[in-house]
Amino acid sequence: TCENHKAEYSCPQGTVLDIQWALFARSAQEPCPHSANSICTAQYPQTLAKVREYCQGKRSCSFHSSSSLVGRDPCPNVYKYLETRYACKWKSKIICENENAQLSCLEGFVIDVEWALYGRSSVNQPCPHYAAGTICIKKDTVHETLLRIRDLCQGNNSCSFVANTNTVLGNDPCPGIYKFLELRYVCNKIICENENAQLSCLEGFVIDVEWALYGRSSVSQPCPHDKAETICIKKDTVHETLRRIRDLCQGNNSCSFVANTNTVLGNDPCPGIYKFLELRYVC
Length: 283
What we know:
GO molecular function: carbohydrate binding
Organism: Nematostella vectensis
Protein name: SUEL-type lectin domain-containing protein
CATH architecture of the largest domain: Sandwich
Domain SUEL-type lectin: 1-89, 95-188, 191-283
InterPro entries: Lectin_gal-bd_dom (IPR000922), Lectin_gal-bd_sf (IPR043159)
CATH class of the largest domain: Mainly Beta
C-alpha cells in the first residue's frame, strides 16, 4: 500500500486475519512509482505490532499507510509503501451441547480438523445456560475428541453431527455443566491424480504453499475410482512433495501443473492405488 493511501485487508466468511509480517519502507523501486524512489529497508518491529493492533483476528480492517505506523519516519525524503504478509485462518467454531455441528468447505476442498475441545472454557458466553456458571477444561480429553471428530469429518467436503458427550467423547468430562464443543479446522485443496492443478491469488498477492501430501488419506471420497478403496499415507514423502510444489508455485501469483507422480514426487508411493494431491496454501 503506497504511502498516504488507505490499506484495506479482508478475508472470506468464517476466517480472520493473521498478520505475519509488515515493513513500511521501500525495498524496490517498481511499486508505487515516484521520483523519490531510493531504496530504504530500515525495519522497525513497531510496524508489525501496529498493523496487528488494527487487524489481527478481524475479518476485515482498514487504516492509513503512513509513518505513524512506526512512530517516526524510517526513510526521510523517500516515498515509502507498506508491505504486509497475512493469511486468512479459520476462527474457532463453537457448537453448543446437543446442537447440530455443520462443517463445510468450498467445492474442491476438504476438511482438515486441527484441534478440538469439549467442555466449558468460559462462563455465560458462548452458549448461555443456567448450568453455565463454572469453567471446566479437561485437556487430557483433547486427543480423544479430536480423533472422534476426525473420524466423522476428516477428508470430507462437509459433515454434520450432534455435539454431545456420546458423540465427541464418550464420558462426560463435566457432569452437571452445560458444555460446548470448540474446534478449529482448515480446508485443503484436492487435485485428483493426473488432473490439472491450478493455484491462484488475487492481484497483488503471491502463493505460499504451507503443506502438501500425495497419496490417499481416505477411501471413496474425494476422487472416487475403482482403485480408491485403500488408504495410503506415506508421511516421509511430505517434504519432497512440498519442495517440488514450492519450486513450481512459491512466490508466483498463479501456477498450474499436472498432479501425478512424476511431477509431485518422483517415485510412486502407492502403486496400484488411485491417488490425489492434498495441499494447503495462503496468499
